[in-house]
Every structure is written in C-alpha cells, then in structure tokens.
Design brief:
The complex is a heterodimer of chains A (114) and B (144).
Chain A: H1 10-22, H2 26-62, H3 67-103
Chain B: H1 2-19, H2 31-37, H3 49-62, H4 67-82, H5 85-99, H6 103-123
The chains are: A mainly alpha (114), B mainly alpha (144).
C-alpha cells in the first residue's frame, strides 16, 4: 500500500470530494453533517474516558504484579514499620527516663557531669 | 516496582518530617503545658525546636505526678533544659545503670546521699544558698 502512497494527491482528492458534495442533495448533506457531529461527540466522550482510565492505569502500575514484587514490597513495608516502631519505642524510653530523673528522690546533680 | 519503592520512601520521609516539631512560641502552648513548663519559661524561646517538642511531651506526664514529684520536677526542669544533649544522654545512661542495681545497693546510695546532704546542711545552716551537689555517681555503676 505504501508504494502507491506517493501517487496519491491528498489536495486533489479533497477538491474532488468538495465538488462531489456540491452535487449532493441537501438532505444527504445534512445527514452527513449530522453523522460528522455525532462522530465528533463520540470522540470527545472517548477522550474523557481515556483520561480516567489513564489514572487507573498509573495507580495500577504502582501495585506489585509478580510474587517477587509482592514479597519485596512486603519486606520493605515491614522494615519501615519495624524502624518506625523502634523509633517510637526509643523516644518513649527516653521520655520515661527523663521523667524518672526529674522526679526521683536522688538529686539530678548525682547523674550530671558538669 | 520502582514507583512503589519511591512512594513508600516518600511516605516515610514525610512521616519523619511530620514527627519533627515546628518551633512554637510560648503563647501557643496550652494552659496545662504552660503550667508544667513554667520553670523553663525564660529559656523557652532560646530552646531548639526538638527540645521544645521533647519538653512538651514531658509536660504531658506532669499532671499525673504526685505533689512531691511535681515539686522535684519544677525545681529540676530548668537545670535539665540547660544541659547539652550529650550531658542529658550521659545522665540518662547513668540513671539507667543506677536503676539496674540491686535494691539494697540503691538503698545504700540513697542513704549515702542523704547523709552527705545532712552533713552539708549542718555546715551551711543559715546561708540560704542551695545545697551543692554532694557527690556524683561515676559510671559504670553496675560494678559490684
């Protein structure tokens, strides 16, 4: 099909089509207009649906697909949770120790290096 | 997969950012926090934000303390806030080591401290100046 492509003059075809439409009945022209408008409306609706599906597609890309990916994601998530728990626990221990130092019977100077 | 890792890493970073406290003027503290932190009021604006956040967390326990503990907390908080982070960490380590001692050893330490305080009070009965530290625990405490 490509080898015939250079012989096709798009401008000439357009001219012929324009001339042909001038010879068509008004009823046919109006039907063609209506068909064209309907087609354009459908195209717009399709584009809208495409943008929604793109978001869905990107969200889908974030999800692991294979078992290996699921395992890796679970390990990463577990590591993050463990480190967060460790961080909170360490902070909690520090607060508890500080409260104990600040309220103990023994004077604070006993534990502080000046 | 790469996107998932990036998303998780971002969540973690934002979480840490969220955990870090923003600097807070004294006026923005709740009345309950202000009451607990009144000993550090003169220092408040000079304290680093992490320390402000830490002190605010300490203040949450204040209202659960008994009157004697509250009195100690009030008298020690300013001294505690003026220490460097390294000094506070060293104090925590010493205190932790002290808590690991057997009960009778801890009682001995308390007795020695009380005796020293009494001796020093007898030596300076009318001066009105606060009693200086009578002794300092030397790490490691857990040696027999």
């Amino acid at each position: 099909m490509n080898k015939y492509a250079p012989h096709i003059d798009h401008g000439r075809i357009a001219q012929l089509l324009t001339k042909s439409t001038e010879q068509l009945d008004d009823q046919i022209v109006s039907s063609l207009h209506q068909a064209s408008a309907t087609a354009l409306q459908r195209q717009r609706a399709h584009q809208h649906a495409f943008s929604l599906s793109t978001i869905g597609h990107r969200a889908h890309n974030l999800m692991p697909h294979s078992t290996h990916q699921w395992v890796a994601a679970t390990i990463i998530l577990a590591a993050i949770l463990v480190s967060l728990a460790g961080y909170w626990q360490q902070a909690q221990d520090k607060h508890n120790l500080d409260i104990d130092i600040l309220t103990d019977e023994l004077p604070i100077e006993l534990f502080v290096d000046k | 997969m790469k996107s998932l890792i990036i998303t998780l890493a971002l969540c973690f970073t934002f979480h840490i950012q969220f955990v870090r406290a923003a600097p807070e003027p004294w006026q923005k503290l709740t009345p309950s926090e202000q009451q607990a932190l009144i000993p550090v009021y003169p220092l408040w604006s000079t304290l680093p934000e992490t320390q402000q956040h830490h002190l605010k967390r300490l203040a949450q326990h204040y209202h659960d303390l008994d009157p004697k503990a509250k009195q100690r907390f009030d008298s020690r908080l300013a001294t505690w806030a003026k220490l460097t982070p390294e000094q506070r960490q060293a104090a925590r380590e010493k205190y932790h080591a002290y808590t690991q001692l057997p009960q009778e050893k801890r009682e001995q330490v308390k007795q020695i401290v009380k005796q020293n305080q009494a001796t020093q009070a007898q030596q300076q009965p009318v001066s009105g100046t606060p009693i200086a530290p009578v002794m300092t625990l030397q790490a490691p405490l857990n040696k027999p």
